[in-house]
Design brief:
Helix content is 39%, strand content 15%. It has 17 helices and 13 strands. It binds flavin mononucleotide. Flavin mononucleotide binds next to β4 and α11.
């Protein structure tokens, strides 16, 4: 009998009260209002370790969702991903409270010099013992660009810029310091052998640098790389750089298509599906019985905010949905925001069109995630079936109500998955990359683009 595939599991969240389940912070039983307190997060991270989650993944947004109504006020009033804190600072705080959980966050590469960013990530990889991951994003909010005194760069140009950024961070992480450069020899005395530290340099259209990395090689060197771009250019970028890919799809068919697309893009880069883990966004509402779960769903729906959902969707689409009648269909238009969301909402394979009301109603709890509602058995069976049928490797689980959503999942669903042999019984040892069975030991896989980017340049400096 073939061994059951082990489901990879991440918790998808954000260092903010409002994330994907819009408006749920206002529910009387919700605790996300405590998001500024460290104990909220250490409790959360320990719960995830009890449930053997592979990682906590923190999304991030630079800018305010101010497309809806042309104003920042609805986002502020309804808590749509604002206020939002720096997720990398939180990772440093969680490093000591956890010992196995992967700690990954989104870092927008448009607004920070790669030299500083590379040092921060190396520092975190040291402090977490090699458990850090980076979701590479280029941002979609013009308000973010304006806050830096710029216009938002065009959609595909942002990925070109991203490729240049990656050239620099790979040089710093992979090639500046040789293994064994740090000798810490008290006798000589010699802390670092200067012959084993190399100047790296890069000059591109947007970015230019030369220098040595300031941080000695961390356990993974390059953090585990995540990417979620799904447009043509986004997929190309993901296929070159990502080790974990995020996909969204509300049905098995749409997830299967997303996986097939990713596999094609990987093949174009000379990579194979076993070199990446593809994770789908998932929202679960689980109860002791199916009826109990359905009751919860109805109660949550009543508590969620339709207006906040449209604030979020307008920012994602780059279209002000407040300007159209509630029952009108969303028209395709080419914006510089999230092309995949635009395609998903306007180009259904069966030709059907989605209205603004349907977006408000269908996306309020689970956004673009797959939604599973039921008792533990139903949820576990459905998760296993989705993995088997679509070719994804696992899920990124987003909360509806905190901490209930995750406590219920750990208490009810995790044991069912384990009984079925679809989920680990203990953590594997090693770095995050090793725990996921990716890479060349703790390092990027030998054929990963970043292992060799700029290698010749280093040798010739
Ligand atoms: C699971 C998931 C998480 C994401 N997290 C973030 C995030 O934290 N910050 C962000 O700006 N974009 C995030 N995105 C959006 C992607 O980075 C990207 O902008 C989006 O998929 C559109 O890319 P495309 O225009 O190439 O399709 C996320 C997407 C997915 C599917």
């Amino acid at each position: 009998m073939m061994a059951q595939k082990q489901i990879v599991l991440g918790a998808l969240d954000c260092f903010a009260p409002g994330f994907l389940a819009q408006g749920m912070w206002a529910h009387p039983a919700d605790r996300t209002g405590d998001f500024n307190s460290l104990s909220y997060w250490t409790d959360y991270a320990r719960l995830l370790e009890r449930g053997l989650f592979d990682m906590l993944f923190l999304a991030d947004t630079i800018g305010v969702y101010d497309v809806y109504g042309g104003s920042r006020d609805p986002a502020l009033r309804l808590g749509v991903q604002v206020p939002i804190n720096d997720p990398f600072v939180l990772i440093a705080a969680l490093a000591g409270a956890t010992s196995n959980l992967g700690l990954a966050a989104t870092g927008n590469l448009l607004y920070e010099p790669p030299y500083l960013f590379a040092r921060r990530l190396s520092t975190l990889d040291h402090l977490t013992g090699g458990r850090v991951g980076w979701n590479i994003v280029t941002g979609i909010l013009a308000s973010g660009a304006r806050a830096f005194g710029r216009d938002l760069m065009g959609h595909d140009d942002r990925y070109d810029f991203g490729d240049e950024f990656m050239e620099i961070v790979y040089r710093l992480w992979e090639h500046s310091w040789e293994d064994g450069a740090v000798v810490q020899d008290r006798e000589r005395p010699m802390f670092t052998d200067p012959d084993k530290v190399h100047q790296v340099a890069y000059a591109g259209r947007h970015l230019k640098m030369s220098g040595i990395h300031l941080t000695a090689p961390s356990p993974q060197r390059t953090p585990l790389l995540f990417q979620a771009g799904a447009s043509g250019r986004g997929k190309q970028f993901a296929a070159r750089h990502a080790e974990c890919m995020f996909v969204n799809g509300t049905s098995r068919a749409s997830l299967s298509r997303a996986v097939a697309d990713m596999h094609r893009a990987l093949a174009e880069q000379g990579r194979t599906p076993d070199q990446v883990r593809i994770l789908a966004g998932l929202t679960v509402i689980v109860g002791e019985t199916r009826a109990h779960a359905r009751d919860k769903q109805e109660a949550f729906k009543a508590a969620a905010s339709a207006e906040a959902t449209l604030v979020h969707a307008s920012g994602g689409l780059g279209i002000d949905l407040s300007r159209y009648p509630y029952d009108s269909e969303i028209e395709y238009s080419e914006t510089d925001a999230n092309r995949t969301l635009m395609d998903n909402l306007t180009r259904q394979p069966d030709g059907s069109r989605i209205t603004i009301r349907q977006v408000a109603e269908k996306m309020s709890l689970s956004s673009r995630n797959m939604l599973i509602v039921g008792d533990a058995q139903t949820v576990a069976d459905e998760m296993i079936a989705v993995v088997a049928e679509t070719g994804i490797d696992g899920f990124n689980l987003a909360r509806v109500l905190m901490p209930d959503s995750l406590e219920d999942f750990v208490r009810l669903v995790v044991p069912r998955l384990q009984e079925k042999g679809a989920y680990k019984a203990a953590y594997r040892s090693g770095t995050l990359r090793e725990k996921l069975g990716l890479g060349d030991g703790a390092r990027l896989a030998a054929n990963h683009y970043g292992r060799h980017a700029g290698e010749e340049a280093v040798a010739s400096i």
